[in-house]
Amino acid sequence: MHSVSIFGEFAHESGKKPHEPAQASYSGRMSVALENILAKAGLKVDATEFLTLVEDAARRLSPPNPDPSHYFSADQRAALTDVGLDLSPRREEEPDFRARTVAAHAVLAEGALSVAEAARTLGVDDSRIRHRLKEGRLTGWKDQGWRLPAWQFAGTGVLPGLEVVLRALPDDQPALVVAAFMSTPQPDLLINDQPATPRQWLLSGGDPEHVARLIATLGSPF
After folding, report:
1. pTM value?
2. Higher-confidence residue: 13 or 111?
């Protein structure tokens, strides 16, 4: 889908038609390569669906004006520049810092459960899932219905200590930030003298209060 669009734009600008057999072969190889990567990562989605998720994430996460100075007043720009911050727009040769975020958001969205899927996983009615979301005993975001990130589930239940952790979670933290925290090794959570992710810590029977104290600091300046 995306490779066709790229070839089409190039052909329009050059006045030539793309070589259709070569295009199809290239597109096919790219799809197979992407599907192999997705399979190795344990993601149950085909290449076309995943690229659609990436496109949607890029549209949602890419600001309409990537110039950092756009978001500040003249006085704020002067103060930030004085302390050494670079507010100039990204140069063409610089890597786009948003790419990693867009990919991570697409993976998070692909692995998330709908209310019905979460209900089947836990063996409860859909209404019980919505009730838990309302009470803060499960977390998720709305995107044409609730989407519940997979990190909070374990087997046919929820992550041990989940409610303790969610009670400490600041309300303003995006789902992507929370998912990254839960899957990133923390130096304060040691298993066999090795930093463990909060999810690993909870699955191993670790005290959820330790994770709660860490997650409560998300978004706080250090």
Report:
1. 0.60
2. 111
